[in-house]
Description:
The protein is an alpha/beta fold. Helix content is 39%, strand content 16%.
Amino acid sequence: MSRICILGGSGFIGRHIVEFLVEENHFVVVPTRRRERAKHLILLPTVEVVQAEVHDPEALVRLFRGCDAVINLVGVLHSPPGDPYGPGFKRAHVELPEKVVAACGAAGVPRLLHMSALKTAPDAPSEYLRSKADGEAAVIAARGRLASTIFRPSVVFGPEDQFLNTFAALQRWLPVLFLACPDAQFQPVYVQDVARAFVTALARSESVDKAYDLVGPTVYTLRELVEYAGRISGHPRPIVGLGERMSHLQARMMELLPVKLMSRDNVRSMRVANVADAKLPFGIEPTPLEAVAPVYLKGAYPRSRFSAFRYKAGRKPREV
């Protein structure tokens, strides 16, 4: 049994990684600012939910002491603007990885798995991608002192995702959908495939000092994904694709909403095709979106995992 600390462990991807680790009898520490946000994990055996501020360097050292590995999943999609990126991106994507690397050294943790994003680059068009690149750089700079592995997923889908579910919900209530960047390309990857890659990497020495792009088997345009979400959820709507200028205008208006569905920085991110010519590592077979999404988009959420199992076994997903 290993002791593993997961930053962001109560989130969409984190909860799946936690479940896999518990199945393999690892002891998992999940820090969170509010325990109620991780109540879905509290009852799992070998999981300890700790109320802590992960941006506090001293708190990180205390959390990491005695751990065999640390997994950093923390990320944000929105931030006030800045140069080269805004303060929200800087805090979550750059400063936190730097603190995590330092705390691993101070606490004697030998292993770090780090979540980045597909198509990060110092000269990327969006603040999000530039900040993710600088976070990667902090992890890479520690090679030789810290055994690390970096993962760069495309958009991740699954029962609790905020991607397909959001577009399905919008089409439930809106008669027409005005869609920014309709030709943007994505290669969606299943959340359990992402989680399996993280957990498998812990036991694979060949993954040390490597970076892996995590993508699904199919490339889609954003329009195709939105149309699919509406059709499968039973609320297909006409979709009006917006050009670049109108996409920016729509995003600017959405930035004023209490709940931010889109920002101008998101639009800039979508200028880069979110795809990769890569296979999932460790022999993991990528799960097609069509094997899982129909179940949870139709509201049969508890059965979505079984649909993936059916696909892996070579059986067609059951219609609901």
